[in-house]
Amino acid sequence: MENPAIIIIDMLNDFVTGKLEVERTKYIIPNLKKLIAAARKNNVPVIYSNDAHYPQDMEVVNKWGKHAIKGTKGAEVIPELKPATKDYIVEKRTYSGFYETGLDPLLRSLYKGEGAKTVVLSGLHTHMCVRHTAADAFFRGYRIIVAKDGVEAFTREDHEQGLKYLENVYNAKIMTIDEIAKELG
Ligand code: ZN
């Protein structure tokens, strides 16, 4: 895996236990813990891509209602996956982690300026924020790996269709967290 960066998407209180609770998230929390630990141990950058909405954001007003409002408890990463000091947090205001954020320049600055080449996507939701982040990563030339036991969605159907789409359209490599952890070490 060439110059990997781990991206943890929207593992925030509002999506896990709050307003837009995804019951199925409980299945991936222990796996994500493992992934983050393996990355930190091997000095692989860990980036949290977090919704941090203004109340007037399109997504809030026109689609989901109030969620992950910047500065609130709901917009914080869940306690189980608390970011460490050396991790990166990149706030976003819609589905894609790249859309008008500092994610791309951050990725290009990693590995002593060589840049990250592979993004390992995890978090919520397989068919929405993961999918749109994957699209933008693909457009920018990153190789994409999706942690299949590290992403989830509201329903199993959304999740499974999401995985298939990522594989078919963005040539994402679908791997388990154990497989990814092995490659990081
Ligand atoms: Zn949102």
Salient structural properties:
single chain; 185 residues; alpha/beta; Rossmann fold; six-stranded parallel β-sheet; 6 strands; 20% strand; binds zinc ion
Describe the structure.
This protein has 185 residues and is of the alpha/beta class. The protein has a single domain (4-184), classed as Rossmann fold (3-Layer(aba) Sandwich). Helices cover 35% and strands 20% of the residues. It has 7 helices and 6 strands, in the order βααβαβαβαβαβα. It has helices at 13-16, 29-41, 58-64, 103-109, 129-139, 156-170, 177-184; strands at residues 4-9, 46-51, 88-92, 118-124, 143-152, 173-175. The protein has a 6-stranded parallel sheet, with helices on both faces. Helix 3 links the parallel strand 2 (46-51) and strand 3 (88-92). Helix 5 (129-139) runs parallel beside helix 6. The chain starts with a strand and ends with a helix. The model has no long low-confidence stretch (mean pLDDT 96). It binds zinc ion (ZN). Zinc ion is lined by residues 51, 53, 59, 67-68.
